Amino acid sequence: MQRLFGTDGVRGVANTELSANLALRLGAAAAYVLRSKHEGAKILVGRDPRISGDVLESALAAGVCALGVDIHLVGVVPTPAVAYLARLIDADAGIVISASHNPMRDNGIKFFGPDGHKLSDDIEAEIEAQVGRFDELPFPDGPGVGRMYRAPYLVERYVEHLKRTFPHRLDGVSIAIDCANGSASDIAPHLFADLGAAVAVINAQPDGANINRDSGALHTDRIRKLVAGTDATIGFSFDGDADRAILSDAEGNLIDGDHVMAFCGLHMAEQGRLPGNVVVGTVMSNIGLELALKNAGIELARAAVGDRYVSEEMRRRGAMLGGEKSGHLIFGEYTKTGDGMITALQVLNVMLESGKSLSELAGQMEEFPQLLESVPVRDRTGWEQNSEIQAAIHAGEERLKGKGRVFVRASGTEKLIRVMAEGPDMDELRTVVGDICAVVKRALG
Fold first, then answer.
1. Active-site choice (52, 58, 98, 100)
2. 185 assigned to active site
């Protein structure tokens, strides 16, 4: 059977690659693997506002209940809300139906354990194996069948949690927000307004079809224009499931996750809130982040790409801060997974406590030029064994030796090979990346 799980759950075109039948089987398999050994097993499920979420939620819920496990449906919520609420109600697992930043026609199903962390590769492999033996699973009858409960009231518990992470008021602060017509659309505007901020909002009217359309964390021109047009202090651009945020300062400059980890890491270290003086980034984190932290005696530990791997490395190192350049950040004091709104609140916290603007804080890290290109391919596997591609990568590494680096990886969610180069000369990076991309396209495009 073809591998179902990527780096962030199971994804595909909804109703074709990710069909109701597959969702049913995944629900049953997950219930079988994740349920406790005691009576009263339960799984919590949330989703983003995509149209296809209705179909997939219904099918997934049917699969879970068919295995004798109760399911609690919280409705449209950010991905990190599911991770938090699953722990809160002592669920056996949390499941999110979302394709995050992907276009509306896609969807996905991803899993959290009872501790709020994403599942390990081993457990995902076990669920995948049970999908393949669906007809052999032990389906109960009579009173053994699971029940389905609608639980939208739990969302307010997540909002209360967000507010508890922020010890200040935002009176006099002007904030611009792009909600990507996604899961943050109801929560984010009210959250910041309740804390006293003046809030300007765009793309907060989800209709099931407009999620991520020319909006959100992948379309940052919108947030920059909103900040400029409203004279806002800061802008936050969330993605469709609100597990990450990209920032804009008052001058319209974009501030990515690497810069946020730099100034938050420095601030947390000053306050004695950075255990082990370590921050966890990824192999894609800019070398400028590493240098900014190193100058303050802080280590940058690099994990594989994907916030689940960042989370695993944070647990291994006992770290309280980690994340990705893309804006997936984990503040371990408050969350076990990326959370765009906690990121926004922690950035505001540093601004208020330091008395510095976002641009001043971001200036503590010098960013090295970095170029990333994605090459569409027929199959994202096997590139590591292709001698022509490996020769091109080696040639690029030799060209940048001692002054930069090359990093190539397959996307965990799409049929893409991503090629990145980093160094002091952008023209040279364009040549290196262009040469490698041309070979990948010729070999696998």
1. 100
2. no
